[in-house]
Amino acid sequence: MRVVAAVITQNGRILACRRAPGRAAAGKWEFPGGKVDPDESPEAALAREIQEELGVEVEIGALLHRASTLVGNTVIDLSCFQAWPTGELPHRSTDHDELRWVPVNELRALDWAEPDIPAVEALSAG
After folding, report:
1. Model pTM greater than 0.90?
2. Residue 69 is part of a domain; what is its CATH number?
């Protein structure tokens, strides 16, 4: 499954989102994003997913990290892109029960969803 996520930065902090109860990986933290449709580029999918999920517009930057993780019987191919809000900051989500701005050096303290862990490790390493 091809998935994209946004590493949204603001004032030296990164947006982490906690999966809401009743969702897959409920209670785990992740970078916001979602699935890439067959007819979309990863960047277009990410801009669409952030608009749908967080209700904000973002500028998509460079690919920061890509890794594949086996979760159950599904391989999750997660591409994480740098992103910046172009207007208001996100304050709600359709998929998450908490949004938190986290300094890079505190990312590892959160309980991350499995597919996001390689990106968290890469970001934390500098």
Report:
1. yes
2. 3.90.79.10
What residues pair up with 7 in beta bridges, in sequence order?
Answer: 82
| Tally of domains in the chain | 1
* Residue among 59, 5, 57, 65 nearest 34 (CA): 5
Tell me the DSSP string of 31-85. Answer: -SEEEPPTTS-HHHHHHHHHHHHHS--EEEEEEEEEEEEEETTEEEEEEEEEEEE
Q: How far apart are CA 91 and CA 113, in angstroms?
A: 21
The rounded distance, in Å, linking the Cα atoms of 36 and 44 is 9
Q: DSSP 3-state assignment of 31?
A: coil
Q: Tell me: the pLDDT tens digits for 35-78?
A: 999 999 999 999 999 999 999 999 999 999 999 999 989 999 99
- Give the other-Cβ count within 10 Å of 55's Cβ: 13
Percent of the chain having pLDDT more than 70? 99
Q: What DSSP designation does 27 have? A: T
Q: Which domain range does residue 9 map to?
A: 2-125
The tokens describing 62, both together, are: 């460079």
Number of residues assigned to the chain: 126
